[in-house]
């Protein structure tokens, strides 16, 4: 299972410089766990960290300029940390699976001469086979839309771009002048037409760059949930769809897809989901004359079913998440902001448990990343799984790992639930 081991954000709103987990040059830091929660008070940057993942996923799809405008982000000038003129930067440190050598992806975005955001730098790197120490080697290096992509599946070029004096311009000239040289045959000079699109989007579509393609597919697979219950209440036109979208407004289509794909098993899946939502006895569907599928929920204590349109926000939300976890091809990475909103605490506990089982299950399906300020959710978690965001005196966010605190660790080991400790201020900085 693919796993993000670390994520670094610089100059993105309140996240002036925040890292959760491990990076290629911070090997002693603990890697992110299959289930990770970021907690903190209001205004510490939880939504911002969540949206940093969403921004990256959007940037891959629509380019950096449009991503700055999407989802109420308000354009680059509001996205960049106030009072600073440095590029907005992201770094993802991840493994394709447990045995794979980790890959680092770096992206920097800045304003061009015309005041529009563009991709300033992009880089993918990985250690060579059997190389256990030192700098990983680049297999994609782009500055301002021009750079080099190293071909091949496994072995990386002999060029160490981190060596002092390395100049990508010089290397490009050499590759062009001597196309038959070994280093030239292994690499390809790339010039992007559109500097607002990510290089991994363009090059990742090409068969000759399998590693870039794999990374592109990984980010494309992220599910960064911008779910709203009202979207889930909409009645989309009939038509089965395999995956729930991030807004959740195709819930009915996904149910239709499952009905078609799973035939006899469909009702038992709905029954299993129903058993996990306290208060719900049965979920089934009803076909409208124009071919749409209405979702019916049988609430304990009521004779007649309720339709999705009448169901509570919380129930719809849990249903949507459970359906997502039933996806036979679940997303490698599931990012959810404040799942507690609209949820009764019992519902929240069962949701936390489901996420956790899903993330740590034998099959290891999706990595789950959650932001929350709900102690009940945190009760289900271990200190290794929890990161605490705080606001520094300068107004910028800082982050701590809950397991750094020996007292907290030993109290949890003695059976005290972590959320309760947080509630009683034990997780506050000392
Ligand atoms: N461009 C920016 N530069 C610096 N700080 C910002 C910027 N935009 C928003 N903020 C700060 O970010 C904080 C909001 O963070 P947010 O992620 O919404 O917090 P949370 O979700 O934890 O409640 C606010 O305190 C706000 O002042
Ligand atoms: Mg928030």
Account of the 3D structure:
- Strand 12 and strand 13 form a beta hairpin.
- Strands 2-1-4-5-6-7-8-9 form an eight-stranded antiparallel β-sheet.
- Helices cover 32% and strands 25% of the residues.
- The protein starts with a strand and ends in a 7-residue tail after the last helix.
- The protein has helices at 46-62, 64-69, 76-79, 168-177, 182-186, 199-203, 210-221, 229-233, 251-262, 265-276, 313-326, 345-360, 375-379, 406-413, 418-423; strands at residues 3-12, 15-21, 35-39, 88-95, 103-111, 117-126, 137-143, 146-150, 187-191, 223-225, 280-287, 293-299, 306-307, 333-337, 367-372, 386-391, 397-401.
- Helix 11 runs parallel beside helix 12.
- Bound molecules: adenosine-5'-diphosphate (ADP) and magnesium ion (MG).
- Magnesium ion binds next to helix 1.
Instruction: State the distance separating the first and last CA atoms.
Output: 37 Å
Class per helix and strand makeup: alpha+beta
Estimate the global geometry from the Cα principal axes. Answer: globular
Q: How confident overall, as mean pLDDT? A: 88
- Total beta-strand segments: 17
> Could you describe the largest sheet, including whether it forms a barrel?
8 strands, antiparallel
**Largest beta sheet: what is the strand line-up?**
2-1-4-5-6-7-8-9
Give the bound compounds. Answer: adenosine-5'-diphosphate, magnesium ion
- Amount of beta strand: 25-35%
Radius of gyration over C-alpha positions, nearest whole angstrom: 23 Å
Q: How many distinct helices?
A: 15
Ranges where pLDDT stays below 50 over 5 or more residues in a row are none
């Amino acid at each position: 299972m693919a796993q993000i081991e670390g994520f670094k954000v610089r100059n993105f709103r309140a996240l002036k410089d925040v890292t959760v987990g491990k990076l290629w040059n911070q090997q002693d830091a603990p890697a992110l766990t299959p289930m990770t929660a970021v907690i903190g008070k209001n205004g510490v940057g939880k939504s911002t960290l969540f949206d940093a993942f969403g921004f990256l996923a959007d940037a891959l799809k629509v380019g950096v300029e449009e991503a700055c405008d999407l989802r109420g982000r308000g354009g680059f000038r509001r996205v960049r940390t106030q009072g600073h003129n440095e590029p907005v930067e992201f770094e993802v440190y991840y493994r394709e699976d447990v045995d794979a050598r980790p890959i680092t992806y770096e992206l920097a975005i800045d304003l061009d001469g015309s005041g529009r955001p563009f991709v300033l730098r992009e880089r993918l790197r990985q250690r060579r086979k059997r190389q256990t120490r030192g700098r990983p080697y680049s297999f994609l290096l782009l500055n301002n839309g021009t750079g080099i992509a190293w071909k091949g599946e496994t072995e990386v070029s002999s060029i160490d771009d981190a060596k002092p004096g390395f100049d990508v311009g010089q290397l490009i000239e050499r590759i062009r002048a001597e196309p038959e040289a070994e280093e030239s045959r292994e690499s390809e000079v790339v010039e992007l037409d559109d500097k607002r699109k990510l290089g991994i989007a363009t090059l990742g579509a090409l068969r000759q760059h399998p590693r870039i393609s794999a990374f592109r597919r990984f980010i494309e697979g992220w599910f960064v949930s911008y779910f709203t219950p009202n979207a889930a209440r909409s009645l989309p036109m009939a038509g089965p769809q395999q995956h729930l979208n991030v807004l959740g407004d195709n819930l009915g289509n996904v149910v239709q897809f499952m009905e078609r794909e799973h035939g006899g098993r469909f009702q038992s899946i709905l029954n299993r989901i129903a058993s996990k939502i306290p208060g719900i006895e049965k979920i089934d569907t009803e076909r409208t004359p124009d071919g749409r599928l209405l979702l019916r929920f049988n609430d304990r204590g009521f004779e007649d079913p309720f339709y999705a349109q009448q169901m509570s926000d919380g129930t719809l939300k849990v249903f949507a998440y459970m359906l997502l976890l039933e996806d036979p091809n679940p997303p490698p990475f599931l990012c959810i902001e404040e799942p507690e909103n609209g949820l009764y605490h019992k519902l929240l506990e069962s949701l936390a448990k489901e996420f956790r089982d899903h993330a740590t299950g034998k099959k290891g399906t999706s990595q789950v990343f959650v932001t929350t300020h709900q102690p009940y959710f945190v009760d289900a978690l271990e200190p290794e799984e929890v990161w605490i965001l705080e606001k520094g005196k300068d107004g910028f966010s800082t982050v701590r790992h809950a397991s750094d605190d020996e007292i907290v660790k030993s109290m949890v080991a003695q059976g005290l639930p972590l959320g309760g400790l947080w509630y009683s201020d034990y997780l506050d900085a000392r």
